[in-house]
From TrEMBL:
<keyword id="KW-0378">Hydrolase</keyword>
<dbReference type="InterPro" id="IPR023365">
    <property type="entry name" value="Sortase_dom-sf"/>
</dbReference>
<keyword id="KW-0472">Membrane</keyword>
<protein>
    <submittedName>
        <fullName>Class E sortase</fullName>
    </submittedName>
</protein>
<keyword id="KW-0812">Transmembrane</keyword>
<feature type="region of interest" description="Disordered">
    <location>
        <begin position="78"/>
        <end position="98"/>
    </location>
</feature>
<feature type="compositionally biased region" description="Basic and acidic residues">
    <location>
        <begin position="78"/>
        <end position="88"/>
    </location>
</feature>
<dbReference type="InterPro" id="IPR042003">
    <property type="entry name" value="Sortase_E"/>
</dbReference>
<feature type="transmembrane region" description="Helical">
    <location>
        <begin position="21"/>
        <end position="52"/>
    </location>
</feature>
<keyword id="KW-1133">Transmembrane helix</keyword>
<dbReference type="Pfam" id="PF04203">
    <property type="entry name" value="Sortase"/>
</dbReference>
<dbReference type="InterPro" id="IPR053465">
    <property type="entry name" value="Sortase_Class_E"/>
</dbReference>
<dbReference type="InterPro" id="IPR005754">
    <property type="entry name" value="Sortase"/>
</dbReference>
Length: 254
């Protein structure tokens, strides 16, 4: 009796080969999915660290700095309001690089006080100490442009609400001996290349200063470094730290 073949060996083997190929593809998709899930989890962790944990650490560290400064300088009598002075203000000694030498108080901000250190290095100043003073710009109370930079988001975000400032709002700088009170004159948005905003005479590089000015700089818009948000302020008076707090801060206490 003659046997009839119902299929060739090649035909019978095709389904098994397709199954193997499908298994490999499924395994590859599974591995890819696991990688994407891992990357997604890492991204979430990075965002939590960047947007939340850096604030937690910076707030803690800056609070410790402020406490240490008050211990070194002595506490200010918060119940006494000092008389504003318009005579020549005392100029603090030039600080060394990364040295904390002052405190900035902005009543219009939810977080009112932040340390000021020399330099604008991210790693050594802005990320760990608070506001950074641009080297070679004026010191507090000095004729010229006392210029500072600060984060608008992350690392304590001292200038998060910089766009809240309006003309006439006070910005108070405290040093070991005095309070220097400036009032906002204008706000503007510029490109990172427009460094003339921190010139001796703001906006006029090469022109000798005739006034005491203050400038704040921060990245703009939020979560971007595409532009810079700038606030200029002019000096209006100073008070002796030993005499109590200046009127600009007494108004916020009340």
């Amino acid at each position: 009796m003659t046997r009839t073949r119902t299929g060739s060996p090649t035909h019978r083997g095709a389904p098994r080969g397709g199954a193997r190929a499908g298994g490999v593809l499924g395994a590859a998709i599974g591995v890819l999915g696991e990688i994407l899930l891992t990357l997604g989890a890492l991204l979430v962790l990075f965002l939590v660290w960047q947007l939340w944990w850096t604030d937690v650490v910076a707030d803690r560290d800056q609070a410790q700095i402020l406490t240490q400064m008050e211990q070194e300088w002595g506490a200010v009598d918060q119940e006494r309001v000092a008389q504003p002075r318009t005579d020549e203000p005392p100029i603090p000694p030039a600080p060394q690089d990364t040295m904390v030498f002052g405190t900035m108080h902005v009543p219009a901000f939810d977080r009112m006080s932040v340390p000021i250190a020399e330099g604008v290095s991210l790693e050594k100043v802005l990320n760990v100490k608070g506001m950074g003073h641009y080297p070679e710009t004026a010191l507090p109370g000095q004729v010229g442009n006392f210029s500072m930079a600060g984060h608008r988001n992350t690392y304590g975000r001292p200038l998060e609400q910089i766009d809240r400032l309006e003309a006439g709002d006070p910005i108070v700088v405290e040093t070991a001996d005095a309070f220097y009170v400036y009032e906002v004159t204008e706000s503007l948005v510029v490109t990172p290349q427009d460094v003339e905003v921190i010139a001796e005479t703001p906006g006029q590089p090469g022109v000798p200063a005739t006034e005491r000015m203050l400038t704040l700089t921060a990245c703009h818009p939020m979560f971007s470094a595409k532009e810079r948000y700038i606030v200029h302020a002019k000096f209006v008076y100073w008070t002796d730290r030993a005499d109590g707090i200046p009127p600009a801060l007494a108004e916020t206490e009340g």
